[in-house]
Sequence to fold (368 residues):
Amino acid sequence: MSTTPQPFGRTLNPEPVSVSRRAEILADPGFGLYFTDHMVTIRWTADGGWQEPGVVPYGPLSLDPATMVLHYGQEIFEGLKVYRQPDGSVASFRPDRNAARFRGSAARLAMAELPDELFLASLRELVSVDHEWVPPAGGEESLYLRPFMLATEVGLGVRPSAEYLYALIASPVGPYFSGGIKPVDVWLSTEYTRAAAGGTGTAKCGGNYAASLLPQAQGAAHGCAQVAYLDAEERTWVDEMGSNNLFFVFGSGSQTEVVTPELTGSILAGVTRDALLVLAKELGCQVTERRISGSEWLEGAAEGRITEVFGSGTAAVVSPIGRVKHAGGEVVMGDGQPGPVTRQLRGLLTDIQRGLRPDTHHWMYPLA
Ligand SMILES: Cc1ncc(COP(=O)(O)O)c(C=O)c1O
Fold:
């Protein structure tokens, strides 16, 4: 099995998107609708290890109908953003964390573990070819990177695949909140859970998101943009949302405490969550990772002890929650508007990501 890293091959797209069309796309990219001219692929086989790393033209994958991923769902992914810096260079936010989480997800799904150096090299290779797709500095636009891996062995036996395909694609994305940061309503599900301890909640595998679509539709039917889940065993403790970790702000001023559910075996360890814990401490807040029950959330907000609640994740960075709805009613968070801690944390983190504030924690990773 090869252990020395091989150089990336590069096959340029003979028909890249025209400069004028790319400018049109970058002017209004939406989310996940358009893709850059290239992608990275790396194959793995049990006999040969990681092989043939390369940048190739973006295009369809061809899969035999009996490819294992199509039947047993051995698939994992990551999501991270690349930001244009004021000096024109481009950088991403803590991609080493995504590399490590990707390896952790692979381990849980009994898949081959991509070495972190290869994960990071794949980001550098794609962004150096497609750097013109990174939106300009000064706004909230970015280039979203989607690394993923699937089981490609052909066969219907239920066992770990002996072959995998790692791929990396990139999509320019617009501001999450156009026209200013807006609070969202959240559905607290008491019917469905996201993950159980011992299950796949700490992994970023496609199956977790497939299972979230029905509760997500239920939430949408109640006018909610996101679903918050309770733990699977006791249906008591708040885990997280479908694609965000959760933060609760207690009190205000010098008495502010920021609480987030501790990482049990069913919560995804968000990269944004980790950074916000550091920044909240620097803001002078008391920061606590502990269990918080659904009733503490509802009663605390109704009685004014909980003053702000927000979600954290790569897509929205910090997403204020205006109202939580549940089978028994609804409660407004604070005055329903994004509170001061929510705003300050969002401002601090987005400024660091956009190179507008010194990166004292060395979180930014230059890519091109
Ligand atoms: C289930 C879940 N929780 C939390 C997060 C936030 O993680 P991060 O901050 O790394 O984007 C995500 C998004 O990746 C997610 O899908």
